[in-house]
Amino acid sequence: MNGEAAVELGEIIEQADEFVAFHEEQGGERLDYTPASLVALDAMLTALFDRRVDPADAGDLVIGAAAYLGEVIRRTLGGSWHDGDPAAGHEVINPRLQLGSISLWPVERVMRCIADGPGESLTDYYASLTTLA
Fold it and tell me: Residue 10 above 60 pLDDT?
């Protein structure tokens, strides 16, 4: 793998599954790892945007939502998880999802969704990836 460390798939799946359980405990719809379930994820993140939550203050939620987003992409479009590039200065857990020649950063995408609101829809993001994969 060119000297890159692969992220333990089990850890990502565990984080995503914990996020699914949390979402359901909060009264959210069932998240089933399908692209259609990203609508519910968008709604949750838009609510955080509406409450002006700083993504940096929602670390566990961001990591869980990013793991879920990445797993939806990986399970439906393919790809593999890798450690984030330490040279990029990432201070948070930031695994990279490699989809062919495309590097995806789900943590950054979720943080942007919380910070910038509905204009950063994860549903639209996924749809854009389907045209590239």
Answer: yes
